[in-house]
Protein: Ribosomal RNA small subunit methyltransferase I
Organism: Brevibacterium aurantiacum
Amino acid sequence: MSGSPDTDGNDDFLVDDDASEPASVDPASASAGGRLVLVGTPIGNLGDASERMQRAIETADVIAAEDTRRFLSLTQRLELTHTKRVISVFDHNEQSRAPELVELIRSGQTVVLLSDAGMPAVSDPGYRVVKACAEAGLPITSTPGPSAVLMALAVSGLPSDRFSFEGFLPRKSGARKNLLEELRSEKRTMVFFESPHRIADTMDDFLTVIGPDRPMSISRELTKTYEETMRGTVSSLRDLAADGLRGELALVLAGATAVETAPEDHLDTVGELVESGVRAKDAAGQVAKQFGLSKREVYEAWLHRE
């Protein structure tokens, strides 16, 4: 993410054409010593394959790919020359592969890590390898690439100055509702991934927990031929999704609107929790967290209620 140049004349974030390091020096393909390079790959449109991405693949000593067959297909479609070692690193073997990759990098080899689409380690394999390399003190860099998270946020029309990425929603409705309950009072814009097979049930849960009027968007098939972003409210998008939607989906939900409330406004909720067996102090803490209040003030209001 990048900021806009400071209009007051502060050019700290502007590119310095006289910088001491030439622009042609690419950390992702530098040959001095081993390193881990996270490579972002297209999420649909091959035109998004950057020159740096392609050069990193062609100059790597080892390729660690989520799916080796998809990786080879990508290189064929991009007409990349690649004869180096390719190994698989996916969810179920990443933990066991990490020590091997650490040793390869220690020995001076450059390992390129990539997933099927988008940035590795963001809802894709890669985090455990990055963690292992960081703990070993090894160099780690990245060639930035397409991101469904940022693209969905950017085209949503919702506030993007502060946001959270919540990843894939839980598969089961109960767990999904519990998560949405936790996020109901979150004031930042939220981005989720969801399967087209579950979108109708998921939108039912959004309607139940979040309510009908919260603004949101659903983007599908980002960067692909049938790319579409639907904008509206939870209720209107729930109706659109009732019969299901095709393609990979990114949901963007507006944050909760700050509402000025006092501790006294929520004593009935505290009382309901107490009646269910929750200690008064714990009940006050839960209510305070949900409504952005002081736990001490809610508890004091409960103790001095009329």
